[in-house]
Amino acid sequence: MKIATYNVNGVNGRLPVLLRWLEETQPDIACLQELKAPNEKFPIEAINAAGYNAIWHGQKSWNGVAILAKNKEIKELRRGLAGDDEDLQSRYIEAIIDGVVVACLYLPNGNPAPGPKLDYKLAWFERLTAHAATLLERNLPVVICGDYNVIPTELDAYKPERWDDDALFRPEVRAAYHNLVAQGWTDAIRKLYPTETIYTFWDYFRNAYGRDAGLRIDHFLLSPLLQDRLVAAGVDRNVRGWEKTSDHGPVWIEIK
Q1: Which tens digits make up the pLDDT trace of 195-237?
Q2: Which of 39, 68, 72, 176 has the highest count of CB atoms within 10 angstroms of its CB?
Q3: Residue limits of the Endonuclease/exonuclease/phosphatase domain (predicted)?
Q4: Domain ranges, residue 229
């Protein structure tokens, strides 16, 4: 089973890129973030025509997450995280597909930091961590993937010293990520490539993609039942070089 995650940075504006990538790579499951579209504007007809079923949790102009599955039934389990009834941002959706629980998330950016946006990010992280613990308790195969907006270590950033004060790399944010992983999750990319420089995001400015001045902020966390079934992982970094593309590259894993 091939599972991918892709921050599309606007599902309608980047629809030709998304459809081309789906056609060329044929993931069994694709988790999308930053749809930037309300529910009624999600391009379900085009997605269906490409051979995929979908569930989505949209929001006008901002955020939004979706799970696509090729020729597979998607049973939605949850949208949104418990713990804050006033949080209306569309950042989390969860489903079960072929016996695997797949969670798709778009974690808050948190900038400028410090400030209320960082506070929201850390509070959202706490809610995610609490929910992730309940998923582990069920002893099911679980994948939590998406744009975490976290640079876990210095290895995951080009010139990490430039990111010291950024909400993606602040100590409390990295600590929140490592606290989540420490519950018993496996970072799929680092399991297979513990010391390699791998990026998933390249800014639009200063020729970041051409210089390979990137960040690794899109992650797959696997529950114990899946960590030994991981057989491959990678980044479709060439997609970042396509015309009118997202500033993220799709990331994928294969599990047996």
Answers
A1: 999 999 999 999 999 999 999 999 999 999 999 999 999 999 9
A2: 68
A3: 4-248
A4: 2-255
